[in-house]
Write a structure and sequence with these properties.
With about 525 residues, the protein is α/β, with parallel strands linked by helices. About 35% of the residues lie in helices and about 20% in strands. It folds into three domains: about 100 residues, Urease, subunit C, domain 1 (Roll); about 130 residues, Diaminopimelate Epimerase, Chain A, domain 1, CATH 3.10.310.70; about 280 residues, TIM Barrel (Alpha-Beta Barrel), CATH 3.20.20.
């Protein structure tokens, strides 16, 4: 007999404008919703009863953009996110070496510091990191994942010296007084060299993927993204799939530069799940980070004469990527933080037939500083913006300083997108932030910075709209709106129970709501 469950005696938010008293789930699918009387008629001897006890049932949250493989790696790193000055970073690194009895020569990798939040308001230098140890190479990664710093022995291990030239789309930092390398690296210079420091065995990596997955599940996330999958990471996800270690639908977006090698070994994962793993499309990066001042802006950053960030790709490279996606019927995700990067993506998309573009549902990841007239364009071009909504809280004060009030107040312009009936989504860009979707909802409806400034009152949205961005809209982004994103007959029973109704409590309290239970295919996980 098939397994079945009845959910009842609570509030049910279906995201379909229906108001049932109960839900009947069987064999991983939502079979029926309706009154208690109607649903309990379906009960059989193999039916479990899930008494909500007044709590709230919702469709599972859908992660619109993150990096589970990168997040997994951070679980084995030194957490620097709570450090408020450079001395604390040095002490944390020293503690890690001593506590783990690390042998000389083995890498120490830290993650999560933010120069904007340090007392010194700058990145550490290689000389300062040398104070932690001169016998182990060190790499610390900025919270954005777009930049970082290594110590002197780290520079040597990466084969970086005074003669090393800046790569395209990146740069090495140098001391303003001596002109010598100071250990800082950004964009392509950092991303390429970071690989050297993050060596894990396959077994260690698979175990970290399992740990990361559990954290997503605890946050009510029932579909996960790996938003820039390289060959090594794909191999690990493929191994996790083969060993039935993935409990949650996981969608890869392959680094376009590694597409051919990955497809040679992963063709069977193309646009379909195999043991919870699917290749959904390709990813390209067009610029950097606004808080790190590497996002490509149309106007200079405040306090900088002409500097406005820089592009990571040429128009020709982007056009080629779009052409590949159209030819292969693959979705394209494009990282665009600055409005000039957004303009570049729009300009390239405009060169293709709108109906063809509509089929692949391209996504503008972050779309942080996209302008009003650009939203009009992406509406016409069927581009989906996925906003990093939590920027308003975590870096809103920094954006006011770096961008000025007029630009900062429109960071993550969800209300403007909603007014144009654009199907937008929210994400946490994990591991940049933890995969806490309820916090993103809180950020989007309150738009308060850490210093308590309301950054763009006119861009606040209502709570129901925010819920749509992480459920039904996110399902649409993945072309899975027919099977996920709402509580509706025929859809997969990916469900969550919350302790409070986000639609009924004070919007300032939403971040305190807890996920009580998460269900995948009707099974509590």
């Amino acid at each position: 007999m098939k397994k079945s469950t009845i959910f009842y005696n609570g509030e049910i938010i279906t995201m379909e404008n229906t108001h049932p008293e109960a839900v009947f789930v069987e064999d991983g699918k939502i079979i029926s919703i309706g009154s208690n009387k109607e649903i309990f008629k379906l009960k059989n001897t193999n039916t479990k009863e899930e008494n909500l006890e007044g709590k709230v049932l919702l469709p599972g949250f859908i992660d619109a953009h993150s990096h589970i493989t990168a997040f997994a790696q951070t679980l084995g790193l030194v957490d620097l996110s709570k450090c408020t000055n450079i001395k604390q970073i040095i002490l944390k690194l020293q503690e890690y070496k001593n506590e783990n009895k690390l042998i000389d020569g083995k890498w120490i990798v830290g993650f999560g510091y933010d120069n904007n939040l340090l007392e010194e308001k700058r990145h550490p230098s290689n000389i300062e990191l040398d104070e932690a140890t001169k016998k182990n190479p060190i790499l610390i990664s900025h919270v954005s994942g777009h930049m970082g710093v290594t110590n002197t022995i780290g520079l040597k291990a990466m084969n970086i010296n005074e003669e090393t030239k800046n790569p395209e789309g990146g740069s090495y930092g140098r001391s303003k007084t001596t002109g010598k390398l100071n250990g800082y690296m950004e964009e392509s210079a950092f991303i390429t060299n970071a690989k050297i420091a993050n060596e894990l065995s396959n077994e260690e990596y698979v175990e970290l993927i399992e740990r990361a997955q559990r954290i997503y599940l605890k946050n009510g996330i029932t579909t996960i993204q790996d938003g820039l999958t390289k060959e090594k990471e794909f191999d690990i996800l493929r191994q996790s799939s083969k060993e039935y270690k993935l409990k949650v639908d996981t969608i890869c977006y392959i680094d376009m530069s590694e597409r051919k090698r990955i497809l040679e070994k992963g063709i069977r994962f193309l646009r379909k799940y195999v043991n919870k793993l699917k290749i959904g499309g390709y990813k390209i990066i067009l610029d950097g980070s606004p808080q790190g001042k590497t996002a490509w802006m149309s106007k200079p950053y405040i306090g900088e004469n002409e500097y406005r960030g820089y592009p990571a790709k040429t128009d020709e490279e982007i056009l080629e990527s779009i052409e590949i996606c159209l030819n292969e019927n693959m979705q394209l995700l494009a990282h665009c933080n600055g409005d000039e990067a957004a303009e570049q993506f729009i300009r390239c998309i405009e060169k293709f037939d709108k109906e063809d573009i509509k089929k692949i549902r391209p996504v503008m990841i972050h779309a942080q500083t996209i302008r009003e007239e650009q939203l009009d364009k992406i509406k016409k071009l069927n581009i989906i913006p996925s906003f990093f909504a939590s920027h308003t809280y975590y870096w809103g004060d920094v954006h006011i300083k770096n961008l000025g009030w007029e630009r900062a107040k429109n960071i993550s312009p969800a209300k403007s997108a909603e007014d144009l009936a654009i199907n937008y989504t929210f994400h946490q860009d994990t591991p940049v932030l933890s995969p806490n979707i309820l916090e993103s909802i809180w950020c989007s409806v309150n738009r308060a910075t850490k210093e308590g400034i309301i950054i763009g009152e006119e861009q606040k949205i209502d709570v129901y709209s925010a819920l749509k961005a992480v459920t039904i809209n996110a399902a649409y982004q993945y072309k899975e709106e027919n099977v996920k994103g709402s509580i509706k007959e025929g859809k997969i029973a990916n469900l969550i129970i919350l302790d409070k109704n986000p639609l009924k409590i004070n919007r300032e309290e939403i971040k305190n709501i807890r996920v009580i239970k998460t269900f995948i295919n009707g099974e509590e996980v």
